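Hi L., both proteins are below.
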Amino acid sequence: MDTTMPAPPPIAPPRQPDLPISAGAKKSSKAPRKLIQALVWTLAALVGALVAISQVNRAGDRIEVLAVAHDVQAGQVVKASDVTTAQVAEDPALSPVPATDRSRIVGQRAAVDLRQGSLLTDSSVQAGGGLGDDLQVVGVEVKKGTAPRDELRPGDKVLAVVLPEQGAQSTTGTGAAKSGAEPEPESIEATVKAVGRTDATGSLVVNLAVPTTEGPQLAEKAAAKRIALVRQPRDGKR
């Protein structure tokens, strides 16, 4: 009698280990945070770029103005070769002459000494010679100590004081002592038109505008080098 052996039980395949639930949760929570950080950095870079572009554009707002190409002495006529153009940043605190006004500036006289490289303003020049039909110009050479140093400029009102002749001062002084009152020195009212440069001896030539009735007398006294200049008070606008 045959004996039948029972079949062996089936062998189950090995079970795969389950993934931890927490790993998937952590991975999914980190992804949005990294995306937000990337967006923040991108936005910050974009804002920085816009600020830089704005500053560059603002610095590029430059205007063309007139500048001094060569030194021009006060009272001299400004020639075309004395004027050049320059590019400067627009600033409300500055008032340079626009380059388009070049023709208006050329031909005027320098109101002050114009230095090479400086910007031209409306106060730097004065129209034409500034003389009317009733004025004359007399060149007066004043010795060292007979005019205020570095104080005279075109447009100033001065007194051209006539100095006594040599040897006459002591006589005048004696007479004044006897009479008890010193006489008022003779003087001529004038307007400064131009101031020359001081030479090695300290003398300088000043062009003075005076009425036609005073011109010959002033020229006579100036030729004898008997003129001293006294600057009158300015009106505060110069």
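That was the first. Here is the second:
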Amino acid sequence: MLFVVLLLVLAALGLLVPALTTSDNIWAWSSVGASVLAALVLAWDWWRRRPGDPAADAQSVDQLAAEDDQRVVEPAVADTPPADEEPPEEDTDAADLLVVADLVDEVRVLDERPRYHLSSCSWLAGRPTVGLPVQEARQLQFTPCALCSPDSTLVSRHRARPRDASS
């Protein structure tokens, strides 16, 4: 409906140009007529869609249902983001952060990328990486990858290790 209004407004502007360049009043009145017609179409559309109108609400529900039926569902792709996109950041628990800050287990980083990963991360496939202790990666402001969840994996490994009798 707004497309029709846009066309009418453009027609009114187009009719205004000859009205201003000639002394013929018919162009001016035609421009005014197109503008009034655009206003009437807008008012009719508003009246047809006014809130609280049960007929309009039912029509809206039917239109939404029809749009849902016509919507194409894309099959789910792998969780790995495209090569040019960075994977999301893992949400790390505060208690786990304290443990990670003291760990020296190796994680993998990519040059010019903000995330650190486990060596088994699917996002790293075929990319040149550098190994760093997780403690150093954190100090260098790298953040954990949500795909391979290095923080939770390293913390669970750390907690599963047997404790020395001397400590």
